[in-house]
Structure formats: structure tokens, C-alpha cells
Amino acid sequence: xxxxxxxxxxxxxxxxxxxxxxxxxxxxxxxxxxxxxxxxxxxxxxxxxxxxxxxxxxxxxxxxxxxxxxxxxxxxxxxxxxxxxxxxxxxxxxxxxxxxxxxxxxxxxxxxxxxxxxx
Length: 119
Hints:
By secondary structure, this protein is an alpha/beta fold. The chain has a single domain (18-112), classed as Rhodanese-like domain (Oxidized Rhodanese, domain 1, 3-Layer(aba) Sandwich), CATH 3.40.250. It has helices spanning 2-13, 25-31, 45-49, 66-70, 87-98; strands spanning 21-23, 38-41, 57-58, 79-82, 103-106. Strands 1-5-4-2-3 form a five-stranded parallel beta sheet. It is globular, with a radius of gyration of 15 Å. 26% of the residues are buried.
């Protein structure tokens, strides 16, 4: 029983083993300072056109060709992923991790972002 409690505590401490970092806007901004980071916005093209983080590439999580677009990314470079409120980016982050990417996700989405927005 004690081993089970230790295992569960470890899983929760590491984000339930999701394989990616979910960070606040301030830490996400620090992640974006890495010149190799690939910034992915998982919202719809319409949402993306209304404003996005500079340098972001739009790969709509709901698009039929999401995985095909994912193939165009460099697995040797980290991914920084976000959406509007954090739900879609968490789903996308899990998919990116399964494909072998190192991922940082903006917890709370772009609505928590205090940095520059590009239109």
C-alpha cells in the first residue's frame, strides 16, 4: 500500500505522466526566447487571424490534416504550443509527445498571454 501511495504521488507531481511541461504565461515567454523553438497555435485559422503570438504557425487541432502538418515539423527542435484557453493545446501536446517531440504547453491558453500579439 505504501508503494502505491508513493507511485501515485510521483505521478501527480509530474503532471500524471503526460510527458510535456504545462507552464504559465511568464514561463512560456521564457521558452519562446529559445531561437530553435517551434511555436504552434492549435486554434482555427479564423481565430489565428484575429491575433497570435509572433512567429507562431497555425496547425488547427480540428483539421483533417493535423498529423500531415505535424510531419513538417523538426523533431530535433522543441515545440511551444497554445490555443485559446488550454484545452486544445493540451490534446495537441499529448499528440506531439507521442510523436517524439519535446513540448511546452501554455496553460490557460492565449487568453493568459501578456506578451505581444501579431495580426
